[in-house]
């Protein structure tokens, strides 16, 4: 019997083939779940190790604080004790004088008693000696040493501040110099002579219609492409109300009105966008609304080939904003910028690469 032009033997083979394919996909799903669990566990171990190190740092600082304060408190106790002794001597003399006053009061009531002037002179001398020997200014803290301690703690604070945020120190070590390729820039973009900024102009510039030039979207990409390691750039978006920035494969479409020409709308690019006060991360045409309202001045872009990650950060405080995981990048990556249109006259500022090197700086 033949069903739909297929013999029973053919259908049986197709059935067996599908079963094998199903098992292969099931096995792959199992491996993916195992990998997911492995990554979660590894991340947890790394997190716990970092937490322990921070706790150890805190323990060291707490111990040092206790020792430092114990020195100051011991010296304070010694000074207070010395002043207590001096105060006791004064109190004792006051009591003796009070007794002498009481004795003299009795003597004054006895008309025949002669005053003892020698004893008065002795009392005056004892008081003068006591006042000289119990001068409060003779007891003090070692304020110069205390100032040295304060200076050392301030140096320690400056050292800690120079090393934190740790993530900032680390990520800045991945900084890579790039400059924009004017031959890729849309004709309404003015690229600075140094290749470090792009500015929108409402005038269509008469430029060669090169194959790599964007002709619809307001994009420009870097001349340099990267295919291994980790790379970090900071983009200045100060004063702008509309911008897009990210990374792209060199295969991103450049011509026509196709959505893939826009950053993050196709599979070739990853981007972060700011428009009408809202931040959105894009890849493959899928938007990810971000929960931020503050207008950032500098955005960091971190690309890690070993992890297949593209991460966007608020660069001043290194606050992570969004990460994409591509797993493995299939091509080299270029930095991509879009300064946006004039946005009702409010978006005239350029978008710029911080610390970019001029293409002619080595000439």
What do these coordinates show?
This protein is an alpha+beta fold. 40% of the residues lie in helices and 19% in strands. It has helices spanning 8-108, 117-133, 143-163, 166-172, and strands at residues 189-191, 197-200, 220-221, 230-236, 242-248, 269-275, 278-283, 286-290, 298-304, 309-314, 319-325, 334-338, 351-353. The strands form 2 sheets. It has a 7-stranded antiparallel sheet, with no helix packed on it. Strands 3-12-5-6-7-8 form a 6-stranded antiparallel sheet, with no helix packed on it. A hairpin with a 2-residue loop joins strand 7 (278-283) and strand 8.
Task: Briefly summarize what is shown.
By secondary structure, the protein is α+β, with helices and mostly antiparallel strands.
Mean pLDDT: 89
Helix content percent band: 40-55%
Shape: elongated
H/I helix tally:
4
Major sheet, described briefly? 7 strands, antiparallel
Unreliable spans are none
Computed structural class: alpha+beta
Reading side by side through the largest sheet, how are the strands ordered?
A: 1-2-13-4-9-10-11
């Amino acid at each position: 019997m033949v069903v739909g032009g297929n013999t029973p033997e053919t259908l049986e083979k197709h059935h067996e083939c599908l079963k094998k394919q199903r098992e292969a996909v099931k096995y792959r799903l199992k491996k993916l779940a195992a990998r997911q669990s492995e990554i979660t566990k590894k991340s947890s171990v790394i997190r716990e190790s970092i937490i322990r190190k921070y706790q150890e740092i805190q323990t060291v600082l707490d111990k040092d604080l206790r020792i430092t304060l114990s020195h100051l408190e011991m010296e304070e106790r010694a000074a207070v004790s010395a002043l207590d002794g001096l105060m006791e001597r004064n109190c004792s003399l006051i009591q003796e004088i009070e007794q002498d006053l009481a004795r003299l009061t009795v003597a004054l009531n006895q008309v025949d008693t002669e005053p003892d002037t020698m004893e008065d002179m002795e009392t005056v001398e004892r008081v003068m000696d006591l006042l000289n020997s119990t001068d409060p200014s003779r007891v003090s803290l070692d304020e110069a040493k205390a100032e040295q301690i304060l200076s050392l703690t301030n140096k320690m604070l400056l050292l800690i501040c120079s090393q934190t945020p740790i993530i900032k120190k680390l990520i800045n070590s991945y900084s890579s110099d790039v400059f924009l390729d004017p031959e890729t820039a849309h004709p309404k973009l003015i690229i600075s002579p140094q290749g470090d900024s792009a500015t929108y102009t409402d005038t269509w510039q008469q430029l060669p219609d090169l194959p790599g030039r964007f002709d619809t979207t307001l994009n420009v990409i870097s001349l340099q492409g990267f295919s291994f390691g980790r790379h970090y750039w900071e983009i200045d978006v100060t004063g702008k109300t509309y911008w897009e920035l990210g990374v792209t494969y060199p295969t991103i479409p450049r011509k026509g009105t196709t959505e893939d020409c826009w950053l993050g709308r196709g599979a070739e690019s990853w981007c972060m966008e700011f428009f009408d006060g809202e931040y959105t991360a894009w890849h493959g045409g899928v938007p990810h609304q971000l929960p931020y309202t503050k207008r950032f001045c500098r955005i960091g872009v971190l690309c890690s080939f070993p992890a297949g990650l593209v991460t966007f950060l608020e660069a001043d405080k290194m606050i992570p904003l969004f990460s994409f995981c591509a797993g493995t990048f299939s091509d080299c990556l270029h930095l991509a910028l879009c300064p946006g249109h004039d946005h009702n006259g409010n978006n005239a500022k350029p978008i710029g690469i911080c610390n970019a090197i001029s293409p002619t700086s080595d000439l």
